[in-house]
Amino acid sequence: MTKPPSNEKEARARPDWLLWKQPIKDEVAAHKTLGTWSTINGSNTPYKAVKTCLVFDIKHDAEGKKTRHEARLVAQGLKQASGPDFDETWAPVPNTATSRFLFALAAANGWEVNHVDVKTAFLDAHMDKEVYIKLPDCVESGEPADPRRLNLDMYGNKQTGRLWVIKLNKELDQMKATRSSVDPCLYEWHNPVHGRVFILVYVDDLIVAGESFAGVEAVKKGVPGSSRSSTWGRAKKFLA
């Protein structure tokens, strides 16, 4: 089947249910390992709980072949109230000129370029508001359907992009990477061993370009969760 199911009920009724069952288990396990939410006593909360649901997707490679089935637990952020649930809402998106500059610089110098997909990027930033959620029955079956308090961020929340980049900025700052004063989505890191490396942030993805492959790998190891990546290899130099 070429299209992902629209909800969990449809996924269970499909002949390819087993392909979705494990991704659901993996998603729930990731949240429980991280401690995304906490159980509270009773159903009375100061704010209205935000509903959550499972969203499904089929990932493909550059040739259009299926690579994996994915299930994501998502908060219905449209139900969040401005003020009690969130303040600012934005995500890191670099200027087009910045992206062109980085690729031109890499091509001119023959640098290594990697695309890094930070796994569960939005799931380990601490919440800045007192937000409560209601989980689908399949997530914690057999337990009371009381609201849970969010400890960590979750896909679908209004403040997700902002919380993620605040956390990422702290991690890159600890690595002594310098944030650009022209475009806050661009960082420069001078490694004493591996040389110069640039990190470009686009929502929850990174483009890492550096003088050496070892330098690029050092950045990926320094950013938690950046285990899944595409190595584009050494950029070709411009012809004279």
Task: Walk me through the topology.
Blueprint: H1 8-13, H2 17-34, E1 37-39, E2 50-60, E3 66-75, H3 96-109, E4 112-117, E5 132-134, E6 148-150, H4 160-174, E7 178-179, E8 186-191, E9 195-202, E10 205-210, H5 213-222, E11 228-234
Parallel strand pairs: 2-5
Antiparallel strand pairs: 1-6, 2-3, 4-10, 4-11, 5-6, 7-8, 8-9, 9-10
- Rounded to the nearest angstrom, the distance between the terminal CA atoms is 49 Å
Number of domains: 1
Tell me about the largest β-sheet. 6 strands, antiparallel
Q: Strands of the biggest beta sheet: in what spatial order?
A: 7-8-9-10-4-11
Radius of gyration: 20 Å
The total count of helices amounts to 5
- What portion of residues belong to β-strands? 25-35%
Mean of pLDDT: 87
Topology pattern, helix = H, strand = E: HHEEEHEEEHEEEEHE
**What share of residues is helical?**
25-40%
The number of E-state strands comes to 11
The rough form would be described as: globular
- What structural category do the secondary elements indicate? alpha+beta
Low-confidence stretches: 227-233, 236-240
